[in-house]
Design a protein that fits this description.
alpha/beta, 7-stranded mixed sheet, 6-stranded antiparallel sheet, 13 helices, elongated
Length: 426
């Protein structure tokens, strides 16, 4: 990959040449996945393959497509197969296309430029009329439609950045989660079932905000909803997962999400995308996020689940009714679920029965333990040195105390790892 300075110099040089000859040009550096999907989409249009929307409804027309083989021979496109994402693949270094848009012809080139840092993938859009300003608009439109018609559609995707450049968004196809609603330990799951039903029917959009400290089950619940939604036998839904650590601005995330329809967008730690943990929000980022969210919620086939560790970390303007339909609070694990969770993690019915003991239930309840703490407890009990003693309630109580003390310093540092509300219930 070219360093940013060299990449910008290359872009300026190409634009300078094209402008010198009286044409309008736009250059964009792409990652390989996006580069391949645009090539594939143009070839699908050229071959008359089925695309969404159909060619008759497109605002542009592909008049011709050529392959480019160094050192400069133009040939008809050579198709050599289809990759796992249903994209056409070809041998050639570049693809050239003539596209008519707004009654003007544009020449598209998608070359691979070798460099000592690796290959550089790019798109050049050149217009006949130097006064036209649609080169960028056409590039954006082609990119969105190409992704929409690629093998990414109807899949479970994770968004991330390639380097620090917000123009370099990468899609990674993930396997469907294996967790189900049966693995979610909530007394009332009706709101979750309502969300899943709405996604399957695609009759109206819903936006949920999950609030709760780490370990209270927010992430597992999101995964269970994703798994249920991907089971739909009707027209598929694309699920997009975003972690706040991806550093993609919220408005860019919504822009990419709108490429797919219908779409379920899941954002973990949404507060980190609109501000910092100390609540020093950037007004520009917040305003941009609010505008993007307002545009997203207007669509009936757009669904959103966002999570945060603390509702106060999410600005009140972002979590008001209308932007989110429901806020669900996740708290400590209900004692009635202790045996079920232990059985799930250990596959040991005898061990799960121990957690019906009143002393153990009372101890865990007083500490307000989360499901994450109980999972950690089970992992320790399954160690070889506890083989003979793990069914002894005194052993379990002693191990609870040990883990409790080991996390105590972290809790005092306001991490609250595994315990809801700190240690006031000693």
């Amino acid at each position: 990959m070219l360093p940013p300075k060299r990449r910008d110099n290359l872009k300026e040089k190409i634009e300078g040449i094209t402008n010198k000859f009286g044409v309008s040009a736009y250059t964009r550096i792409l990652n390989y996945e996006i580069f391949q999907t645009i090539k594939s989409y143009l070839l699908k249009l050229y071959n008359g393959d089925k695309v969404v929307p159909p060619p008759s409804e497109l605002p542009f027309k592909v008049e011709d497509v050529f392959s480019f083989i160094p050192p400069g021979i133009l040939t008809f496109p050579t198709i050599v197969g289809i990759d796992p994402l249903e994209n056409y693949a070809s041998f050639e270094n570049a693809l050239l296309a003539i596209v008519r848009y707004n009654d003007k012809r544009y020449f598209l080139s998608l070359p691979i430029i070798p460099d000592r840092f690796g290959n550089l993938y790019s798109i050049f859009v050149v217009g006949e009329d130097p006064e036209e300003l649609y080169s960028i608009e056409l590039t954006n439109l082609l990119t969105k439609l190409a992704i929409r018609n690629s093998g990414y559609y109807g899949k479970f995707l994770r968004l991330s950045l390639v380097g620090e450049n917000i123009e370099r968004v990468k899609f990674k196809v993930l396997p469907s989660p294996t967790i189900t609603l049966n693995d979610i330990y909530l007394k009332d799951k009706s709101d979750l079932e309502d969300f899943i039903e709405a996604v399957k029917r695609k009759n109206y959009g819903l936006r949920y905000l999950f609030v709760g400290e780490p370990g209270t089950g927010k992430t597992d619940t999101v995964k269970a909803i994703i798994a249920e939604c991907l089971k739909s036998e009707s027209d598929g839904i694309t699920v997009i997962e975003v972690d706040a650590g991806c550093k993609i601005p919220l408005n860019i995330i919504f822009e990419y999400a709108e490429i797919f329809s219908p779409v379920l967008l899941c954002i973990d730690d949404i507060d980190l995308l609109v501000g910092t943990r100390d609540k020093l929000f950037n007004p520009k980022e917040l305003s941009s996020a609010l505008q993007a969210l307002d545009g997203f919620v207007k669509r009936d086939d757009h669904y959103l689940i966002a999570t945060t560790n603390d509702r106060h970390l999410v600005d009140i303007a972002l979590r008001r009714p209308g932007r989110f339909d429901l806020i669900i609070e996740f708290k400590e694990l209900d004692p009635d679920f202790y045996p079920s969770l232990v059985l799930r993690e250990s596959k040991d019915e005898r061990l799960s029965e121990i957690f019906k003991e009143e002393k153990i239930r009372k101890k865990l309840a007083n500490l307000k333990v989360t499901g994450a703490f109980l999972v950690t407890l089970v992992k320790h009990l399954l160690k070889q040195r506890y083989n003979e003693t793990k069914y002894d309630p005194h052993t379990v109580l002693a191990l609870i105390d040990k883990l409790h003390k080991s996390f105590k310093f972290e809790v005092k540092q306001e991490e609250k790892l595994g315990f809801v509300g700190g240690f006031e219930h000693e």
